[in-house]
What does this fold into?
Amino acid sequence: MDNRRLTVGSLKENTVKPLTNNFKNEKKSTKKDIKRGVKSEKIDVVQNNRIYKIIPEANHTLLDTALNQKQKLSFKCKKGTCGQCMINVLRGMEYLEEPTNKEHKKLEAKVNKGYRLACQAMVK
It folds into this structure.
């Protein structure tokens, strides 16, 4: 059951760009891979005391990437003004572009502690 709140902004058609990657064939890390130092590419984020694991997809926002992977991140405006999509990046910051001016303005010092706006954080 989908518990996301719908707002006028979230009802617009085609607001989430479809991704072309098919995740059914994703290779999972094995114990041998871990011993050899092979890392699985994932971004781990926390929002509302829940941990989400997101597979990075270049040239998409972290929010669009998560939504396309059926991750139920909270969001509202998708413009970087409301702050509803604020997340704390636990792992995988190297897959994200530098914080935007909107993120710096909205989050202030929290940006230095790993907080980002999922609607503004672009995946490299």
